[in-house]
From TrEMBL:
One of its GO terms (biological process) is pentose catabolic process. Its EC number is 5.1.3.1. It comes from the Bacteria. It comes from Sporosarcina thermotolerans. The keyword Cell cycle does not apply. GO terms for molecular function: D-ribulose-phosphate 3-epimerase activity; metal ion binding. This is Ribulose-phosphate 3-epimerase. Its cofactor is Zn(2+); Fe(2+); Mn(2+); a divalent metal cation. Belongs to the ribulose-phosphate 3-epimerase family. The lineage of its organism: Bacteria, Bacillati, Bacillota, Bacilli, Bacillales. PANTHER family: RIBULOSE-5-PHOSPHATE-3-EPIMERASE. Keywords: Carbohydrate metabolism, Cobalt, Isomerase, Manganese, Metal-binding, Zinc. Binds 1 divalent metal cation per subunit.
């Protein structure tokens, strides 16, 4: 099954609650929240108070993507604010296993994120401990960037490892996803797709979301 996670980074922040409700009604499966600190990435976005504000607005799981240095210092705040998933970059974690355990200790599902150039070997020894692996298909920091195709073989490589080991881990893709780029990623074994500009920068969000989802599902038939 293909799940679409609209990224609110591309939403109209002056009416964020309405934007979230609109994509929920349009068939979204998760709400993706991009947290940037101006250090790990060259942009600043939102913190736990936005997660807390959105928690009562939607029944969908809140997928919190931390693009921050020292994520350990903020995990409790994001967990208590209502995050369902917290994903951390392997490139930002000095003690990844500790960070993943910390996320789980608050009853939140942990995931690990790889930048486009990071090899999957960096996460092979954490697979047993995570619920999700997120592949960046743009350099993190901004919405609306172009999909980096060279990430796709890594997705297939990890998907094969997950199958071989019989693990229950979902693969999520983030960056430049639209009804074309979703296809090679779904073929490679990904099941959760973040889409920001391809959904929020359109007139008809429902149609955009459903077209992207249908393109992904066409691969599974
Ligand atoms: O993590 C991100 C950027 O760092 C965003 O989730 C991602 O860029 C989504 O936006 P778009 O679909 O417009 O590429
Ligand atoms: Fe993201």
């Amino acid at each position: 099954m293909i799940k679409i996670a609209p990224s609110i980074l591309a939403a109209d922040f002056s009416k964020l609650a309405e934007e979230v409700k609109e994509v929920e009604a349009a068939g979204a499966e998760l709400i993706h929240i991009d947290v940037m600190d101006g250090h790990f990435v060259p942009n600043i976005t939102m913190g736990p108070i936005v997660v807390e504000a959105l928690r009562p607005v939607t029944n969908l799981p809140l997928d919190v993507h931390l693009m921050i240095e020292n994520p350990d210092a903020y995990i409790e705040q994001f967990a208590k604010a209502g995050a369902d998933y917290i994903t951390v970059h392997v490139e930002a974690c000095r003690h990844l296993h500790r960070t993943i355990q910390l996320i789980r200790s608050f009853g939140v599902k942990p995931g690990v994120v790889l930048n486009p150039h990071t090899p999957i070997e960096h996460i092979l020894h954490i697979l047993e401990d995570v619920d999700l692996v997120l592949f960046m298909t743009v350099n993190p920091g901004f919405g609306g960037q172009k999909f980096i195709h060279s990430v796709v073989p890594k997705v297939k490589q990890l998907s094969d490892v997950i199958k071989e080991k019989g693990l229950n881990i979902e693969i999520e893709i983030d960056g430049g996803i639209n009804e074309e780029t979703i296809i090679p990623c779904a073929e490679a074994g990904a099941t959760i797709f973040v889409a920001g500009s391809a959904i929020f920068n359109t007139e008809n969000r429902e149609e955009a979301l459903q077209r992207i989802k249908a393109a992904g599902e066409s691969v599974l038939k």
